[in-house]
Structure formats: C-alpha cells, structure tokens
Design goal:
With 218 residues, this protein is an alpha+beta fold. Helix content is 36%, strand content 19%.
Length: 218
C-alpha cells in the first residue's frame, strides 16, 4: 500500500485501504496487479488518467513516421520517363521517406532480367547523394525491386545546423536614430520697444491786438 504522498504503508486490508482513500477524497488504484501481494496507491484517478494521456501524446509527437513510396519502371522505360520518376524519388528521399523502385516484367521480358538490374544500378548511382540501398535487387514473381533509405548523415547534418543557429547569439539591438534634425535652441527673448516718432513742429505764435501787434493806425 502506497499513500498519496509516496509513503510506504505496508500490507493492509482492502477495506481499510478503501476507507483511508475515501477519507482523503481520493481513489484507491491498483498499480501493480502482478506483484505478490498486489500494489495499490491512493491517488486522484482523474488526474492520473489525464497525466497518462498527456505523456502518451508527447511520446507520439516525438515519433518519426517514415513512409515507403514506390516508383514503377519497365525494362524498356525511356529516358524521359526515367528522369521524371527519378526526380520524384530524389525528392522523397530528401524529405526523409523511403523509396521502393519496382520493375515489372511482362511475358518474355522475364528472360531479360539483366535489363532490369541495369536500370536499377543506374537509379542507385543517380540517388547516391540523398539515399543508400537498404535492400539489394530481389525478384518476387515477375517483379524486381530495390529499397532506398535516406542517408543518416544528411539528417544529422541538418539537425546540427539547426542547433548551431539556435545557439548563435543574436546581435545587440542598435538605438534608433530619428530622421528629424535636433531642435535648435530658441534665442533669448529681447524686450520689444516701440519705434520712436519724430517730434511734431510747434505751431507759429500770432501776436494779439492788445500787444500792439495790430496794423499801424493812419
């Protein structure tokens, strides 16, 4: 019996274990049925199922799925058809998939197996940069096939380049400069003075009659 905090409680009666789990609001789950005696643990069963499902999904994401794609030839396949199918096989290997190259023999073509073997040898040379032979030419009925697998060092090289790029420090950000010129300081305020006007000329003085300024008497 294992408590919810991991403490070993030893061998207990089933009823006592169930009562203890109910008192804590948890569940009594059998985690090792094949052990002698069986091992049970007090846990939250809903949380236990959620964590188990989460771990299974994470493990599934890390799995690499490799599919096998097939290209088919005939002993008399012309160059145009051969190059077209070879390019597809090259692309599939570059993407990480396996390629199965199959040659079909019809009727009396089965007596010229060397033509099929020669075609597969040519294909092996053309795909040497991205793939390697996993299974040599083999006959099954009226078919001869080759199986190519992606090169491992090519995959590791890509992974190493990604890790190196992630570890490379990023350049420090440069301060941005404004396109506008810096503002010039405004000149000190000067006191404003009103423009001076020229003094008006004094009016002429006219002598009055009492002062003898009148016209002379006759």
């Amino acid at each position: 019996m294992i408590a919810d905090d991991g403490e070993q409680l030893g061998v207990m009666n089933t009823r006592d274990a169930v009562r203890m789990a109910r008192e804590k609001g948890l569940d009594l789950v059998e985690v090792a049925a094949t052990a002698d005696p069986p091992v049970c643990r007090i846990i939250d069963f809903g949380k236990f199922q959620y964590e188990a499902k989460k771990k299974a999904n994470e493990a599934k994401k890390k799995q690499v799925t490799i599919t096998v794609k097939e290209v088919k030839f005939r002993p008399g396949t012309d160059d145009h058809d051969y190059n077209f199918k070879m390019k597809h096989a090259h692309q599939w290997l570059d993407e990480g998939d396996k390629v199965k190259a199959t040659i079909f023999f019809r009727g009396r073509e089965i007596t010229h197996r060397e033509l099929g073997a020669k075609l597969l040898e040519r294909l092996e040379k053309d795909l040497a940069s991205v793939g390697e032979v996993e299974q040599r030419p083999r006959m099954e009925g009226n078919q001869m096939f080759f199986i190519f697998t992606p090169k491992r060092h090519k995959t590791s090289k890509h992974e190493g380049a990604k890790a190196e790029a992630a570890a490379k420090p990023k350049p420090a950000a440069q301060p941005t400069q404004s396109a506008e010129p810096p503002a010039q300081p405004s000149p000190a305020a000067q006191p404003m003075t009103a423009p001076t006007q020229p003094a008006a000329p004094a009016p002429p003085v006219v002598p009055s009659a009492s002062e003898g300024g009148g016209p002379p008497e006759q």
